[in-house]
Amino acid sequence: MKISAQFMPGDLPVFLESVRKAEEAGYARAYLVEGQLLWRDIYVYMTHGLAATERIPFGTAVTNPRTRHYSVIASAHATLAELYPGRVVLGMGRGDNAVRTLGLKQV
Q: What CA–CA distance (Å, rounded) separates 28 from 15?
C-alpha cells in the first residue's frame, strides 16, 4: 500500500516545509486541491513543491475541465513533466469546489 499526502495551497512557506516533511516521512505522492476562490494556484504550488523536493511526485487532486480548458491542463502537466520527469500526476474530476464557488454546475 502507498500513502499519499494532500495539501491545500495557501501559505507557501508552510506548504514547502510540509511537502519536504512528507517526502522525508516516505509518503508516495503529494496532491494539491484545486479551488481558485479558496486557495492559491495549484500549478504555481506544484512547481515550487517539485523544486523543493527530490523524489516525491506531485499531482492535482483534482483539476477540472470547466474552469481550465483541456489544452491548458495538458500543457501545464506536460511542461512540469518535462522539467521533473516521472514526478507529475494528473488528477481530473468534476470540479466540486472550483466550479461550485462560481455558481456553475459540475462537469
A: 17
